[in-house]
Amino acid sequence: MDNISRNVEEETNLSQTANVYFDSEDVHACIVTCGGLCPGVNTVIREIVCGLHHMYGVNEVLGIEGGYSGFYSRNTIPLTPKDVNDIHKRGGTILGTSQGEGGNDTGKIVDSIQDRGINQVYILGGDGTQRGASVIFEEIRRRGLKVSVVGIPESVDNDIPVIDKSLGFDTAVEEAQRAINAAHVEAESTENGIGVVKLMGRFSGFIAMYATLASRDVDCCLIPESPFYLEGPCGLFEFIRKRLTENGHMVIVIAEGAGQELISESLSAMNKQDSAGNKLLQDVGLWLSQKIKDHFAESKKMAITLKYIDPTYMVRAVPSIASDNVYCTLLAQSAVHGAMAGYTGFTVGVVNGRHSYIPFYRINEGEKKVVITDRMWARLLSSTNQPSFLNPKGTQLTKP
Ligand SMILES: Nc1ncnc2c1ncn2[C@@H]1O[C@H](COP(=O)(O)OP(=O)(O)O)[C@@H](O)[C@H]1O
Ligand SMILES: O=P(O)(O)OC[C@H]1O[C@](O)(COP(=O)(O)O)[C@@H](O)[C@@H]1O
């Protein structure tokens, strides 16, 4: 117990009340994956199973299939170290997920936990999943059950607050390079070639920003946090014209949530949501590509060739790279140590470089977005030398 206590103490700077100390033979754990697909999820599943087994001698770990509703609508599957030995080499989740679904019955989920004698619940997923975990935790507490509920945050968008970085994010940025490289090759092979790449990022442009900074082939990065406009001397069309005149080709990276306000009027699905309450977006990549083509066709001053690449699902479907595998392993071990020490109602994550236990009520506060007044966005602007779009439409660009 000394070792366990020390681990928790070292890793905790946001602690949550302990409810019970577990003996290995009494542990009946389960794992459920509920969020959007993200590289590294299988690695976490593997390390929870192996961590519980190797470090604590726990033999009973169940997989809940199909996300939260799987607790009451599916059979469970046993997970042993042998079963999960190779799964980190695969993308996706071996348990299936329920991103975008809503209407889960918390009462039935907790009934299932109680009926099956489960006393440790490991929940992987993004911001929606962590909110769901908090609701389950509250119901478990209301019933006075000795069950640890632990969240492991994963979102390819890196939009989970408090933590430094979501697992799988580095892999997503790495994979995005392949699409950007392809767009660059296509663009530079034709006169006035433009490559447009759409990347994920519903409300936050982290993948687009980091992929742009990593690549150096991107001329313009557009994200939801930084509104842009098309017309006028400081608009996107004029910037494209200048960049093509200077270089003969260019690459534009656009996050899926960018520019939604520009396309909102004409498109009817703007205010639609999926069953989990997430806003359904229009394909801004297709829209922007068509707008650029129409603009240059109408102006007749410059003939362009535009290639549009949408690698979004490829980016999140790949297995995690080495650095993410290490990160996933540390998060999974941290989750296991916390649960075994009797902590509950927390999400594991790295905060200011330290592995921490973050109470659900903290992780579920607010949203994480790119702050365009921060240094990172300023670094991107100086790397691409693109307009900031902060100038009013009619005014000329000024030198900094
Ligand atoms: N506010 C909420 N309260 C309870 N459960 C939620 C809530 N939001 C989402 N969920 C559950 O979490 C699952 C995953 O959420 P979703 O937003 O689709 O993905 P992500 O976890 O990647 O953000 C949903 O299918 C839903 O069952
Ligand atoms: O098309 P789907 O499966 O609904 O998922 C798309 C969404 O999943 C994401 O990749 C990740 O979303 P989460 O942060 O909610 O996990 C978003 O960028 C994207 O809009």
Please describe what this structure looks like.
The chain is an alpha/beta fold and 400 residues long. It has two domains: 8-167 and 320-363, Rossmann fold (3-Layer(aba) Sandwich), CATH 3.40.50.450; 180-314, Rossmann fold (3-Layer(aba) Sandwich), CATH 3.40.50.460. Helices cover 40% and strands 14% of the residues. It has 15 helices and eleven strands. The strands form two sheets. It has a seven-stranded mixed beta sheet with strand order 3-2-1-4-5-10-11, sandwiched between helices. A four-stranded parallel beta sheet has the order 7-8-6-9, with helices on both faces. β10 and β11 (354-359) form a beta hairpin. α7 (169-188) crosses α8 (206-215). The radius of gyration is 23 Å and the shape is elongated. Bound molecules: adenosine-5'-diphosphate and 1,6-di-O-phosphono-beta-D-fructofuranose. 1,6-di-O-phosphono-beta-D-fructofuranose (FBP) binds at residues 35-36, 99-100, 126, 128, 155-157, 159, 200-202, 256, 316. This is 6-phosphofructokinase 3. One of its GO terms (molecular function) is 6-phosphofructokinase activity. Catalyzes the phosphorylation of D-fructose 6-phosphate to fructose 1,6-bisphosphate by ATP, the first committing step of glycolysis.
